[in-house]
Design a protein that fits this description.
about 300 residues, Farnesyl Diphosphate Synthase, mainly alpha, globular, homodimer, two-stranded antiparallel ribbon
């Protein structure tokens, strides 16, 4: 299949929908709307929303109907990057080739822009448009899934352990915990929420969740590898930052060769997981490969 | 009515329910669970959850059924305090007589504990218990209302303007905007979501929302006055902090006398708003008075 065309079509749809999320930055709180928009349109790949739409399609659901949820997940992803870049966290100056949010708007506004994006994500999932298109009990189920994947049992939990274990020697199972929570949980929730809202059976949702966990782990390993081998111009930020910060990564724990072998195995397993699906799973198959072949 | 008994009964119910929100702090992410719990059980008045329960009762609904939402609102309130106290925001060392979250757990963990509480609030509102007790479309409506009241159109928006106008001269309408967003929106959403989930008519919900806006504004004026006239031992923090930070407050803009007059008028108006309700509105009437008579 033509993944490049698929990605660019879906990305255009998501970018268009995201443009409607925020009002014009006018009024007393204009600055925070500007700050939220700055990071939301800083050149993200829109991988999570695309996974959500593909997750709906694979079970025969409508990719269009899930757009508000797909966008909400992108807002949550964006909030996590803003908070993660703050001086009190990873203290990063560049993201996707642009100054990070707090470098442009200051720390307080960056904090609040992150809070605003996270909160607005949940508002979006209650939109009239979504409630008219999909059964309310499925919407509630998906809000819960996404909240847990982003919260202390998921992304927030992973960030905590990531920060706490900097410059410490950890074992592979702790690293797997960090990666599964910090990155894997929201990626898994993206594709699983698509499958839930698309009307997938419990067995379909289980299969898609297994697929999500595998590509989620592969995604973070690919990120770790890019931080060693990537190109500044592709990444939009300096490589070697994990090393400088004393972060625990796959290359550090199992070497570059071991990391590449592992990510390939995960992607192969993810594709195998989809064996019972027909051609409608082709985007998910192609996305699994894209995740480890991407340059940024 | 015996407001003291009412408050202490409801507070006990909420505290018991909140105890079940967080798991035991074990496992790799134990520290963030501990940090979330530290602030959640730091002696809050539980005013917002009580308003939510009273909002359900006034329209003849079940106060027990709305407990997960009442607790979720308290989590959102607690997150806002943790982020607000961070050095990059108000930089406060004491809250309710105890060291603030970041003073105990460090800035990064405090940030993440706030993020975790905000996110978990939305997970709580999708609980099976709630979905079994109440119609799903009302739950979705309330999740949206609470998200908007906490987000850039509400609390976050108010915080932004509050921070940006420090040490600046502003007019009364900007101060009203800050107060309505920063404090009023979530207080209004607390009582309105109770009325929605309690099965109130659209007219009831409108009335309760008007009541909420008035007590929300009165609450913030009372806070401003307490910061001038309050007692350290009651408040658990030093007074005069608004003055030191150059915050815009009602006492600063209209004087102490003007502020007291205004809060009394707001409470009288709030009580008048409830005229069409019977004795079931007595708790809301008493709560309106409590809001300006409290010592902390």
């Amino acid at each position: 299949m033509d993944l490049k065309g698929y990605l660019s079509d879906k990305r255009a749809i998501i970018n268009q929908a995201l443009k409607e999320v925020l009002p014009e930055p006018v009024g007393p709180a204009a600055k925070v709307i500007e700050s939220m928009g700055y990071s939301l349109f800083a050149g993200g790949k829109r991988l999570r929303p695309i996974l959500c739409m593909a997750g709906a399609e694979v079970v025969g659901g409508s990719a269009t109907a899930v757009i508000p949820v797909a966008c909400a997940i992108e807002l949550i992803h964006t909030y996590s990057l803003i908070h993660d870049d703050l001086p009190l966290m990873d203290d990063d100056d560049l993201r996707r080739g642009k100054p990070t949010n707090h470098k442009v708007f200051g720390d307080a506004l960056a904090l609040l822009a992150g809070d605003g994006l996270l909160t607005e994500a949940f508002n979006m999932m209650t939109s009239v448009k979504l409630s008219e298109a999909l059964p309310p009990h499925l919407i509630i189920r998906v809000i819960g899934l996404i909240a847990r994947s982003a919260g202390f049992q998921g992304m927030v939990g992973g960030q905590v352990v990531d920060i706490q274990t900097e410059r410490q020697k950890i074992n592979l199972s702790t690293l797997e915990f960090i990666h599964a929570c910090k990155t894997g949980a929201l990626i898994t929730a993206s594709v699983a929420s698509g499958a839930i809202l698309g009307g997938g059976s419990e067995s379909d949702i289980k299969t898609i969740t297994s697929y999500g966990k595998r590509i989620g782990q592969a995604f973070q390993i690919a990120d770790d590898i890019l931080d060693v081998e990537g190109d500044f111009n592709d990444l939009g930020k300096a490589t070697g930052s994990d090393e400088r910060k004393g972060k625990n990564t796959y290359p550090k724990l199992v070497g570059l060769g071991g990391s590449k072998k592992l990510q390939k195995k995960l992607v192969a397993d993810a594709i195998k997981t989809l064996a019972s699906f027909d051609h409608r799973a082709d985007p998910l198959r192609a996305l699994a490969l894209y995740i480890i072949e991407r340059k940024k």
